[in-house]
Design brief:
- It is a single chain.
- The protein is an all-alpha fold and 216 residues long.
- The protein has one domain (63-215): Tetracycline Repressor, domain 2 (Orthogonal Bundle).
- 70% of the residues lie in helices and 0% in strands.
- The protein contains ten helices and no strands.
- It has helices at 12-32, 39-46, 50-53, 60-83, 89-106, 109-120, 122-145, 154-174, 189-203, 212-215.
- Helix 1 packs across helix 4, helix 1 (12-32) packs across helix 6 (109-120) and helix 5 packs parallel to helix 8 (154-174).
- The longest helix has 24 residues, at 60-83.
């Protein structure tokens, strides 16, 4: 898979144009699917000429790969920014999941495009998940060292936690009807609390749950 645009934007205007193309690609790929999407449809959605596309991308495949990378960067930033406001790991998990579900509610294309990547760009798919897991592992290792979570294999735990978030989000965000603005509802509060109770019990050191006030 490709990992960089054909020509990096050299001006603010170029940066904006490339961002418009990425946003248009998100819309087109999510709505039509990779095989029905075309460069013409992407440039039409972005409101730019077809020739402009090739200033930034070599092909439909490249803009797809760059879109996966862009979505990955944005969702990781949303999660890490939220989690970084907390000093306790269990509270950070809570904040990170809140941010993840909020992102997927407003960017349901994340699910649809990542699912497509399994078939059209396996390398992009693996990179997406690996980048999330790598950061997760580091956070869990630091929390283990601080005695905030129990002893466990951090790689297994990271994949398991990511799987929980992905499937809860699919069931209670993606599969729920979108509003007029195209966004989906957030995870219902009782579902979120049940999920976090499960995670707290799985991570808490020595099986000891945090005090009630630190869970919510």
């Amino acid at each position: 898979m490709s990992t960089a645009p054909r020509t990096a934007p050299r001006t603010e205007r170029g940066t904006r144009t490339r961002a418009k193309l990425i946003a248009a690609a998100e819309q087109v790929f999510a709505t039509l699917g990779y095989h029905e999407a075309s460069i013409v449809k992407i440039t039409e959605a972005a409101g730019v000429g077809s020739g402009t596309f090739y200033l930034y991308f070599d092909s439909k495949q490249q803009i797809f790969d760059d879109l996966v990378e862009d979505l990955n960067r944005r969702v990781r930033n949303a999660m890490s920014t939220a989690a970084s406001q907390e000093t306790d790991r269990l509270a950070a998990e809570r904040a990170g999941f809140r941010a993840f579900f909020g992102f997927t509610a407003t960017h349901p294309a994340l699910y649809r495009i990542i699912r497509q990547a399994e078939f059209v760009s396996p390398g992009a798919l693996r990179l997406h998940y690996s980048r999330i897991v790598d950061g997760y592992i580091q956070g869990l290792q630091a929390s283990q060292a601080a005695g905030q979570v129990r002893d466990m294999d951090p790689e297994v735990a990271a994949w398991a936690l990511m799987g929980i978030g992905e499937l809860i989000g699919m069931r209670w965000v993606l599969w729920e009807q979108a509003g007029a603005d195209g966004t989906h509802p957030d995870v219902p509060e009782h579902v979120f609390e049940e999920m976090m109770d499960f995670i707290n019990r799985a991570l808490a050191p020595n099986g000891q749950l945090p005090a009630e006030g630190t869970q919510r």
